[in-house]
Amino acid sequence: MEFIYQYHVVIIGIFFLGVIALMTGLTQRDKKWVRKNYKREDIIALGFGIVCYGLDSEKGAPKKHKGFLLIHRGGVLFKGRFSDVLFDIPGKSIQKAYHGDSHKGAKLYQSAVKIDFLRAPENREIETIAFKMAYP
Q: Which letter, b or e, does each residue of 77-100 get, where b requires 16 or more Cβ atoms within 10 Å of its Cβ?
């Protein structure tokens, strides 16, 4: 117990550095996935720490999926960090992108970027997805 009292600052520092190392490792894992699946010249923007609230057509309240958002020449892709969630929206099907503070009828209490896109181009069915962007 004496050791903890004497070196509590060191123990807190080691814990803090461990959390940072874990976050860096997860980000590197996501970057490796992007490099494996997309050419460098096709990537326009890549953002980490993005929260996706899911599709408008999903049942229930908005779900929070944390992951990264990739804007590439072919469209927009969101991939969840710890879940198997993957939303790939082709650029041709995107109708509009706009700001909103509610999704699926529920108030989000924060700013969100919403994207309307065609789910099935042949019957013109419009779907909405919402993202909360990380602040710099």
A: bbbbbeeeeebebeeebeeeeeee
H-helix or E-strand containing 29? helix 8-37
Kindly report, residue by residue over 92-132, the tens digit of the pLDDT.
999 999 998 888 888 888 889 999 999 876 778 889 999 99
Element (H, E) at 120: strand 106-120
Q: Is the pTM above the cut of 0.85? A: no
Look-up: residue for tokens 């042949």? 122
Task: Answer for the pair 76, 89: CB distance below 8 angstroms, yes or no.
Answer: yes
Classify 18 in phi/psi space as left (phi over 0), alpha (psi -120 to 50) or beta: alpha
56 backbone dihedrals φ, ψ, rounded to 5°: -65, -30
Q: Going by C-beta distance under 8 Å and a sequence separation of 6 or more, which residues neighbour residue 39?
A: none
